[in-house]
Specification:
Rossmann fold, 351 residues, seven-stranded mixed beta sheet, globular, 11 helices, ANL_N_sf, 2 domains, alpha/beta, 24% strand
Length: 351
């Protein structure tokens, strides 16, 4: 039945309940300098259109028999591509672009037998430029990849004149350009103008595995039942109309679980791309204050790092924050609760 389709539950099920103009997704980039931000927001109508266009693009590529690799950081295209894949029954193999190990990446791609990868040209993590496309090019030198869809995220539009000053950590960065291999590499944005925005969510059988995850030197298929069970835990934490800040720097599986759960509940995810300590360790508190975040969902690893800078956490007003969910064990719950002054829950989503 179509109600098993998570894309339907996140997008279609909320039509008529959420206005077209309501913000469904916030994205915050790495750069921040006083009142200068790198940010985007997508309305409910825009999410609906982009997900359906993306699903139709994937349909034309005939990707059904092989997993679709998403080698991405925490960018807006991650939820769009994931929801589009879930809409038409594709299996997603997510790999965090924070992982720069070329040998590891090559091994996963080879084992998966995938022929299509979606990536970014690169992205800033604090003051460090991670050159995702270059790393991927090296990883697939001896792998028969049919196509790479490249999201222009950092590299400049050639038609725009460069600035007088090149700022570290800020997009676009005119000193970085990527090579595109003819007949294999394509710019992501080029497919969307002509793609149809009409795409029904497919009825998915019990045999469908929505995710394929790197796990202990193997690829682990995640069934719909397994995914639904984990989503339910996070979904129970969210409330409709909440703004939920997701901090999962290196675990792309947790990132996907969280934004699906939040969208399914009718709440709003806020996705942060950058270093939680950039330009200083008060960045997360600044995001909570600026966007009136009510729920913070954070991995144990990220929270552990943040708690090393307690004096920075209270530099911003946190009166809207009412609860924290820690993705991991409970060891940090008491310390985090005292530091942030709110209730903390923990959930172990490990495979």
């Amino acid at each position: 039945m179509v109600t098993r389709n998570l894309s339907y539950k996140c997008v279609d099920a909320w039509k008529g309940k959420i206005t077209n103009e309501a913000t469904r997704l916030y994205w915050i980039g790495n750069y921040y300098d006083m009142d200068v931000y790198d940010e985007s927001e997508l309305s409910a109508e825009t999410v609906d259109i982009l997900v359906k266009k993306c699903a139709n693009i994937f349909k034309e590529m005939n990707l059904k028999d092989k997993p679709l690799i998403l080698y991405l950081p925490n960018v807006l295209q991650l939820p769009i591509a994931t929801l589009a894949s879930l809409r038409i029954g594709l299996t997603v193999l997510p790999i965090s672009a924070m992982d720069e190990n070329v040998g590891y990446l090559r091994g996963i791609i080879k084992e998966s037998s995938a022929d299509t990868v979606i990536t970014v040209d690169g992205f800033w993590y604090g003051t460090r430029l991670i050159r995702s496309k270059e790393l991927l090019d090296e990883a697939v030198m001896d792998v028969p990849i049919k196509r790479i869809l490249v999201i222009r995220h950092v590299s400049p539009d050639e038609k725009m004149p460069p600035p007088q000053v090149h700022l570290i950590g800020r997009r676009p960065y005119y000193l970085y350009k990527v090579a595109m291999k003819e007949n294999r590499d394509f710019w992501w944005s080029g497919f969307f103008p002509k793609a149809s925005s009409d795409c029904e969510a497919e009825i998915l059988g019990t045999e469908y595995n929505p995710l394929l995850l790197p796990h202990k030197d193997a690829l682990l298929p995640i069934s719909m039942e397994e995914l639904q069970a984990k989503i339910k835990h996070v979904e129970n934490f969210a409330q409709q109309e909440d703004i939920n800040l997701i901090i999962s720097t290196r675990n792309v599986f947790y990132q996907i679980l969280c934004f699906i759960s939040i969208l399914k509940k009718g709440a709003t995810p806020l996705i942060y791309e950058g270093d939680i300590k950039h330009p200083d360790p008060s960045r997360i508190s600044q995001l909570i204050s600026t966007y009136k975040v009510t729920k913070l969902i954070i991995t144990e690893a990220d929270l552990s790092e943040l708690l090393n800078y307690k004096e920075y956490i209270t530099m911003w007003e946190l009166k809207t924050l009412n609860e924290i969910m820690i993705l991991g064990n409970e060891e940090l719950s008491e310390d985090a609760g005292i530091t942030f002054g709110v209730a903390c829950k923990n959930i172990n989503l490990a495979l």
